[in-house]
Design a protein that fits this description.
Layout lengths: L1 E5 L3 H12 L3 E5 L3 H10 L1 E2 L3 E5 L5 E2 L12 E4 L6 H8 L9 E3 L12 H8 L5 E5 L4 H5 L4 E8 L3 H8 L4 E6 L2 H23 L4 H21 L10 H12 L4 H10 L4 H7 L5 H16 L4 H11 L4 H9 L7
Parallel strand pairs: 1-2, 1-6, 2-5, 6-7, 7-8, 9-10
Antiparallel strand pairs: 3-4, 8-9
């Protein structure tokens, strides 16, 4: 299969490496020309995925050079807030029937649209899908085993599933596009809360309780937004929640840990080289909950911590002192 991966952060690079190792003719297309030059010179993504050599068969190309006419699959791995702009540049060159698969986890700010909805808005003729799950880029690129879930519309899910699976990756399919995307977005918000537990040194009991109630909130929130509840017990929900809330590599968990230790949101955002998706996603989901009248207390408290400067310890107190109820 001829594949093009747009976006050369850690995850985009790792997935391009995987496809190339699987024998697919793969082009990795960074969004910046200077990044193309750096990757070609080092044959390694030293900024985002150090220590992983790019296979000789993996081509690093500019958007102008990319083999759009031959592409059979396009995968987009860029921050959610850059997705619409990136897709807009592809609209004139990408063939209408090529499936466009999102590797992005986050809602668009302002519109609250999921990545697949942004793709459909910009590329209305393109078959749309999402591939997500508990996958740390560095582990994935090193060939350690993992699993993901693929959902989509208007293309052969089984064919893409077979092409992408193999060796270190097992891919499952789902008919719940909304649920798969919501799980991949929401887990970043709860990872910030889990990181606060770590930063405040609250212990394993507190973190276990948080993750249990976060999953319950994900199910309730997702169902209210039209997703299937059972989706959140799968890879894109429970699986990604556990990985992102516990992994030392998780940017969102690390962000929350620093907040728990007393750092400010502004300082952390200024220092961060990588996008912390949970920060923007918390704002989008908080807006959705207000619009729809959905009760999501953990999410609401994370929003207040991030956007209203509420101290992490006060967030904990607010959650612990809510009215008692049945599980």
């Amino acid at each position: 299969m001829n594949a093009v991966v747009i976006g050369a952060g850690a995850w985009g690079t790792a997935f391009a490496v995987h496809l190339s190792r699987r024998g697919h003719a793969t082009a990795l297309v960074p969004r910046r020309v200077e990044q193309v030059e750096a990757l070609r010179a080092a044959r390694e993504n030293q900024a985002y995925l150090p220590g992983v050599a790019l296979p000789e068969t993996l081509r690093v190309m500019t958007e102008r050079e990319a083999p759009w006419a031959e592409a059979q699959l396009a995968l987009v791995a860029c921050p959610s807030q850059a997705l619409r702009e990136t897709l807009g540049r592809l609209a004139p060159v990408l063939s209408p029937g090529v499936p466009v698969i999102s590797l992005t986890k986050g809602l668009e700010r302002g519109t609250h649209l999921r990545p697949s909805q942004v793709i459909r808005a910009v590329l209305p003729a393109a078959p749309v899908g999402v591939l997500t799950g508990p996958t740390n880029a560095a582990e994935f690129a090193r060939g350690l085993p993992g699993a993901m879930v693929l959902a989509g519309l208007d293309f052969d899910l089984a064919a893409v599933q077979a092409a992408v699976s193999g060796g270190s990756l097992r891919v499952y399919t789902s008919g719940d596009l909304a649920g798969v995307e919501f799980g991949g977005c929401l887990k970043n918000i709860y990872a910030i809360a889990a990181g606060c537990c770590d930063g405040l040194k609250l212990g394993d009991n507190a973190k276990a309780a948080l993750l249990t109630r976060a999953l319950a909130e994900m199910v309730r929130l997702g169902a209210a937004l039209g997703a299937q509840p059972e989706t959140f017990y799968g890879l894109s929900g429970f699986g990604d929640l556990i990985a992102t809330c516990n992994g030392a590599w998780s940017r969102n968990r690390g962000f929350g840990e620093h907040l728990g230790q007393g750092r400010t949101v502004a300082a952390l955002l200024a220092e961060s080289r990588s996008v912390v998706e949970g920060y923007r996603t918390a704002e989008s989901f908080h807006g959705l909950c207000r619009e729809r009248g959905i009760d999501a207390p953990i999410l609401a408290e994370v929003y207040r911590m991030l956007y209203e400067s509420k101290p992490p310890a006060a967030v904990l107190a607010a959650l612990m002192n809510r009215g008692l109820r049945r599980e």
